[in-house]
Amino acid sequence: MITVVGAVLTDDLDRPRTVLAARRTRPPALAGRWEFPGGKQEEGETPQAALARELAEELGLTAVRIGAEVVAADGGGWPIGPRHLLRLFLAVTDDQPAPRDGSHDALRRLDAADLDSVDWLDSDAAAVEAVRRLLSV
Ligand SMILES: Nc1nc2c([nH]c(=O)n2[C@H]2C[C@H](O)[C@@H](COP(=O)(O)OP(=O)(O)OP(=O)(O)O)O2)c(=O)[nH]1
């Protein structure tokens, strides 16, 4: 299993109200669809370190605080395809995120009410529902 770590980049770790969605540019099959910024955890990396690295590469974030994991109903992450597992962590930053390495071409900050205003990756459906519940508390 390859772990993909994603950020629920939010406004407040203790009382999250918003999430930053990012629009992919590639591969063609996924281009234009929205996701949680992040990427594959590498050998020897903790999920938190992988997420910090990905957020720096993709969005130019240098000062990120990573909080609790957003867990699925069964306590794990979410399968995204046959070989990948998506794990999500809350994160906050004072930096201004901006697409940086070409992997995204738009960012949008959403609250629970407008979570469906972007076209999320099909594979993210269950994770998006968990985030909706989190932002609705
Ligand atoms: N980052 C991210 N990837 C997701 C999400 N949902 C989902 O199915 N994926 C898939 C898309 C990709 O097949 C894989 C992550 O790939 P990626 O391209 O973001 O990872 P990476 O930055 O490590 O890329 P690379 O070096 O392998 O090119 O997980 C999501 O919400 N966020």
Automatic annotation (TrEMBL):
It comes from Microlunatus kandeliicorticis. Keywords: DNA damage, DNA repair, DNA replication, Hydrolase, Magnesium, Metal-binding, Mutator protein. Gene3D superfamilies: Nucleoside Triphosphate Pyrophosphohydrolase (3.90.79.10). Its cofactor is Mg(2+). Transmembrane segments: none annotated. One of its GO terms (molecular function) is metal ion binding. SUPFAM superfamilies: Nudix. This is 8-oxo-dGTP diphosphatase. It comes from the Bacteria. InterPro entries: MutT-like (IPR047127), Nudix_hydrolase (IPR020476), NUDIX_hydrolase-like_dom_sf (IPR015797), NUDIX_hydrolase_CS (IPR020084), NUDIX_hydrolase_dom (IPR000086).
